[in-house]
Design goal:
Blueprint: H1 5-16, E1 20-21, H2 22-29, H3 38-49, E2 53-56, E3 65-68, H4 70-78, H5 96-112, E4 118-120, H6 121-127, E5 136-140, E6 143-150, H7 156-163, E7 173-180, H8 183-193, E8 199-203, H9 204-208
Parallel strand pairs: 6-7, 7-8
Antiparallel strand pairs: 1-3, 2-3, 4-5, 5-6
Length: 217
C-alpha cells in the first residue's frame, strides 16, 4: 500500500480523538465523495489491513469505531506527527457518546466553519495532567476558545467553581464555548453564568447550521 498524506491525517485524527466512526472519517477527509461511505470504507479497510488502524465494536455501540494502532503511532512518530501521544487503550464506554460528539464538533468547526486549528483534549492533558482541561481548543483569528460539549448538565456547584475561577484566562484562553444538547439546558446554564465574562453558548443543532466562516463567539 502506498501511503498518502491523507492516510497520515486519518491516523493522526483517530489518535487525537481516541477513535472515529467511518461516517466521521468520510465527512472529515472525503467531503468531495458523492457516496460518503464508498471511498472512505475502501481506504480505511486498507489501513486496517496494513495494521495501522483497527476497528472495535463494543457491546453498547453498533457502530465500528476506528482506532490508531501502535504500528500507526510508530509511523506517525517517524513522520513527526504523533505529538507525543500513545495509542489509546481500551475505550471507555461511559464517555463513548460524549467523545463521539466532541469529534463531531471538531468536524463542524473544520469543514463547515473553516476553523481548522483545533487542539484536542489528549494533547492538552499532556501539558496539564492534574488540571481541568476542555474538550478541545479552537483558534478563531488570534484567540483560543475552550470548547466544552455538555451532553448532560452537571451539578450547580461544578459550574460555580468554573465561573468563579480564572479558567478562561489560563494558557491564553480567551473564553469558553459551551455546546449544549438542548435549548432548555442552555438557558439554565446561561442563567448560572449570569454576567461572567468570556462565556459563550450554543446548541449542537445551531452550530451545525452556522454560515461558513462564522463562529458562535
Amino acid at each position: 500500500m502506498e501511503l498518502q498524506d491523507r492516510d497520515l491525517e486519518i491516523l493522526k485524527f483517530c489518535l487525537e480523538q481516541k477513535f472515529a466512526t467511518l461516517l466521521q472519517i468520510g465527512k472529515m477527509f472525503f467531503p468531495e465523495s458523492r457516496d460518503i461511505f464508498h471511498r472512505p470504507v475502501k481506504r480505511v479497510c486498507e489501513l486496517v489491513n496494513e495494521g495501522l488502524l483497527k476497528s472495535e465494536q463494543l457491546r453498547v455501540c453498533e457502530k465500528k469505531l476506528y482506532v490508531t494502532t501502535k504500528a500507526g503511532v510508530k509511523l506517525l512518530k517517524q513522520k513527526g506527527l504523533d505529538q507525543g501521544l500513545q495509542a489509546a487503550g481500551g475505550l471507555d464506554t461511559r464517555t463513548l457518546e460524549h467523545d463521539e460528539t466532541v469529534t463531531e464538533v471538531r468536524i463542524i468547526f473544520d469543514r463547515l466553519l473553516g476553523l481548522s486549528q483545533w487542539t484536542p483534549e489528549r494533547i492538552l492533558k499532556q501539558k496539564a495532567v492534574r488540571a481541568k482541561v476542555p474538550d478541545g481548543l479552537v483558534k478563531y483569528h488570534a484567540w483560543n476558545f475552550a470548547v466544552e460539549v455538555e451532553r448532560t448538565l452537571k451539578n450547580k456547584s461544578y459550574y460555580e467553581k468554573i465561573f468563579n475561577s480564572d479558567y478562561t484566562r489560563q494558557d491564553g484562553i480567551y473564553g469558553i464555548l459551551y455546546i449544549m444538547n438542548s435549548e432548555s439546558d442552555m438557558k439554565w446554564l446561561m442563567n448560572e453564568a449570569k454576567d461572567t465574562q468570556g462565556v459563550f453558548f450554543t446548541t449542537l443543532q445551531d452550530l451545525d447550521c452556522m454560515p461558513y466562516g462564522k463562529a458562535p463567539f
